[in-house]
Amino acid sequence: MAKIRIRETGEVVTETTFRTRNKKVRPVLTAGISKERLDQLGADPVLNGAPANSTPPYEYSYESGVAQGDDGVWYTVNSVGPVFTE
After folding, report:
1. What is the reported pLDDT for 74?
2. What does the DSSP 8-state code read for residue 15?
3. Does residue 4 or residue 86 have the better pLDDT?
4. Stretch 7-20: mean pLDDT, rounded?
5. What is the pLDDT of residue 1?
6. At 35, phi and psi to the nearest 5?
7. Least buried of 16, 25, 31, 41, by fewest C-beta within 10 Å?
8. 10/84 Cα distance (integer angstroms)
9. Mean pLDDT computed over 7-34
10. Is the pTM of this model over 0.85?
């Protein structure tokens, strides 16, 4: 599912959540949200970043956040798990 970053707060939400929050905005959001439309609504698309290098079966790659790349585009950041907390 697509992720969207809201510029004002820095919050990252799914496309479904973004649509729900903006359903009263006109014109109605259509099937695909263009980059221009996101810009008008104060948001940026988040693209999938490269998976982290893991050693199966004991480790796996998981999404741990988002970061802005050198090209100004937002990407997901992936880390290696498992993560143990004490």
Report:
1. 96
2. H
3. 4
4. 92
5. 61
6. -60, -35
7. 31
8. 27
9. 83
10. no
Secondary structure E strands in 1-86 = 3-6, 12-14, 43-47, 60-68, 74-81
Mean pLDDT across 63-84: 91
Kindly write down the DSSP assignment for every residue of 69-85, as one continuous string. -TTS-EEEEEEEE----
Long-range pairs for 65-74: beta carbons < 8 A, 24 or more residues apart: 66/3, 66/5, 66/12, 73/44, 73/45, 73/47, 74/5, 74/44, 74/45, 74/46, 74/47
Beta carbons of 48 and 12 less than 8 angstroms apart: no
22: tokens are 């903006």
> How many Å apart are CA 61 and CA 11, to the nearest integer?
22
Please report, for residues 5, 42, 45, the alpha-carbon distance to residue 27 in angstroms, rounded to integers and kept in the order given: 20, 15, 19
